[in-house]
Amino acid sequence: MEDRAAYAFRFRFPIHVVIFTLGFAAPWDRMMPSVTNLSTWLVLAAAIARQEWLSFTAATVAVLVAATVLATIAAGLRTWATAWMGHWVVGGGALVADRLVADGPYRRMRNPLYVGVVLHTVALSILMPPTGAVFAILTTGLFDLWLAKAEERFLQTNLGESYREYQRAVPAVVPRLRATVRPSGRTPRWGQSALGEIYFWGVAISFATLGWKYNAFLLQRGVLVSFGGALVVRALLPKPRSVAR
User: Structural domain tally of the chain?
Assistant: First the structure.
């Protein structure tokens, strides 16, 4: 990977945290007094109600259900991918190209982890102001697309023709319903994967359990608790020798 991409990959988690923080804060709104500071959740529900597709109450529930489904899909997809790739590879600061992984979701799409992050961002965005939601979704999507392209160039360089054949057989982000590549034979580690992706599960569970209070601030606290819990779990998970520092 080129130096800039390698640096961004190494610090991708803090960069995502900064993007989300800016999305929630939307500091640029202070320069535009006419812009609403209501959550995107309420703004979307009101827009649906104005079109008379649903009542405001039903629209509020519909937006919450959609966000909960997206958050759950994101957590499940990332857990599925991490189980096959390995938690410390997924969470590490450097790319690994020891062999091609074509198991689990990687038999149907090449970038399930990045897709999971984007889906998670869309779900999380309903708690942000509208301008912050647009910023977070667009910035995360573009940043993760750039990372995915840089990562694939790295894998092409290190794995050669075998990875190019894999690229031709497996789509980048839209999953193929029927797998067309042979599994590579790795063994999934579901326990470590679920713990490693506990932040995403925490957010999904927060939406499913706290969302019915219809309080965006309460859900934001659930997100913060999930993030803090993930940091604790990451610190406690044993590191394999290959990634020990």
Answer: 1
Answer left, alpha or beta for residue 52, where phi above 0 means left and psi between -120 and 50 means alpha.
Answer: left
Q: 151-169 burial, b if ≥16 CB within 10 A, otherwise e?
A: bbebbbeebeeebeebeee
CA 45 to CA 54: how far, in whole Å? 9
Nearest Cα to Cα of residue 28 among 118, 130, 139:
130
Name the pTM for this structure. Answer: 0.93
Q: State the DSSP string of 205-234.
A: HHHHHHGGG--HHHHHHHHHHHHHHHHHHH
Residue (of 192, 197, 60, 231) closest to 119 by Cα position: 197
Tens of pLDDT, residues 19-29? 999 999 999 98
Instruction: Note the residue count of the chain.
Output: 245
Whether residue 76 contacts residue 178, with contact meaning beta carbons closer than 8 Å, is answered with no
Q: Which two tokens stand for residue 141?
A: 């999507």
> End-to-end CA distance of the chain, in Å?
21
Whole-number pLDDT of residue 210: 95
Q: Which two tokens stand for residue 137?
A: 């979704």
3-state secondary structure of 153: helix
Helix, strand, or coil here: 5?
A: helix
pLDDT tens track for 128-170: 999 999 999 999 999 999 999 999 998 888 888 989 999 999 9
Q: What domain range includes position 57?
A: 3-243
